[in-house]
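FORM 7B: Structural annotation worksheet

SECTION A. Query
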Amino acid sequence: MPSPLAPSLPADAAMRRVSAIARRMQWLTLCGIAMTLAGMIALWFWLSDAALEQHLRRFLEIRAAEYRVLVSMPYRLAGFVITAGAASVLVGGLMEARKLFAAFAHGMVFTLETALRLRRVALMVTAFSAVVPLTKTLLGLALVSGDGPGPYMLVIVNFGDFALGLLGGLLLAIAWAMVEAARIARENEGFV
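SECTION B. Predicted structure
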């Protein structure tokens, strides 16, 4: 079996590989959308109070027992509304990625349409890296109360958020280069 990085694959074999991977990724993005939507409902309306509080303590990085996490129904609704923003960015990005993979599966790899779709995915990834810390901050403000030992850190940014922002920026730069390359190729077609 040839190495996946082998540069000497025939063009039709390479396109078959791209198409096969893209079809699998279409299913994975669809699964991601379904899991995000089902997970939102399960998290806020199906978990017991104790399980939800434990999950929120981990997510918000609350270690002090003096801080209470409020999980009664009005707070669950508030949490659902707050996290719906991040979930909608995630679902929007996954839907755009699914369309991108559909184009790849049909052999449309270096086109203006796919470059624009990649740019939208990159923007969604970058936006998600900013929305997650904002979501954590809003959840902390809305759902945490108590007299803890000192001030509570409201803005919760970790390395994963930063790395996701860098990945989004990288994808954005690649997408912008692809858009310009596709436009130049289209202009050059007119000269032939």
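SECTION C. Observations
Residues 21 and 78 are 39 Å apart (CA to CA). The chain has a mean pLDDT of 89.

SECTION D. Sign-off
Analyst initials: ____
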